[in-house]
Amino acid sequence: MKPYQIIYYRGFGSPSAVWLTGRVLRQNELVSPADEASFWDNLSSSVGRFLTHEVSNITVRIEAFGQVFRTVTNKEGYFDITVDPAIDPPVAQAWFPVRYTLEGILQPEGYEGAREVVKDGQLMIAPAYSQFGVISDIDDTVLVTGATSLWQTLRLTFLENAFTRLPFAGVAAFYRALQSGAVTTLFNPVYFVSSSPWNLYDLLIDFFRIQGIPKGPILLRDLDISPTMLSAGGHHLHKVAMIRKIMAVNPQLKFVLLGDSGQQDPEIYADIISENPDRIVVAYIRDVSRENSRDTAVQHLIETAATHNVPMLLVPNTVAAAEHAAALGLIDPDTLPEIRADRKADQE
Length: 348
Fold this sequence. Notes:
This is DUF2183 domain-containing protein. This protein is of the alpha/beta class. Helix content is 32%, strand content 27%. The protein has two domains: 122 residues, Sandwich (Immunoglobulin-like), CATH 2.60.40; 215 residues, 3-Layer(aba) Sandwich (Rossmann fold).
């Protein structure tokens, strides 16, 4: 049998509520990609992400903040728990250690002997001095995906790796500027929300690291091949639920939203704005649509957001969004040359 693996997903929360989630599988450990991996290596790694052997009904012991919490995996191997850390976080700290252990489980013989199955991870709590939070889509907002084309999405997912996938030009520098804020000693938390499956989590972690995109929780969803998951409605409901969760555990923060016009980000963000008009500073929508009818629909949603006194902008590129953010006082204007240079380098 293959070894047990605890796949942890970066947790997040506040001094009174932290959300922790992950998955328990039996598989060989996934390795980071090589820069010049072959077609077959990429395909093999990608297929391996989806051919999983889930471990259900296993107790996971979670150690964080000097406390112990427990939860149990479901039939797909996922665990999910919200805990009250009951702490007063250090002023200058945003990331905190967390340890996951499978209770009563030892690795099978041949895998470094009989030992506990342990995984060390991290969780993020926004510091009290954060000015705002950032919630960003991933597909066709950060990562070039072609999400409006199924075949393009499949080709990029299965035949490319974290080194060969492309970011949208200038994204890394812009997101670093947002995280730093107008005063570059600050830390504004960045959250990434997507309807892509959790199976792609390790690829996204590697991609963000390689591209220099700020570290933050990445919220994906269970791979459930069903009409609900594949429908626009399933995509919409998942992302709205995740954004609500982020906002619920950060009641002190306002948010900047970033997405694209290709799928439903404008509709999703319009819903969030209507629910919480006083907590959304601005929404930036990258224009990736080639259809006039889609631009017309997005424009209508922009007008709806304006009735709540929240600007939603349809922007052609990262630099346009960054210039507007600088004018609003969200980022340091001195970061604009770096963002322009980053966009040019990415394009080249």
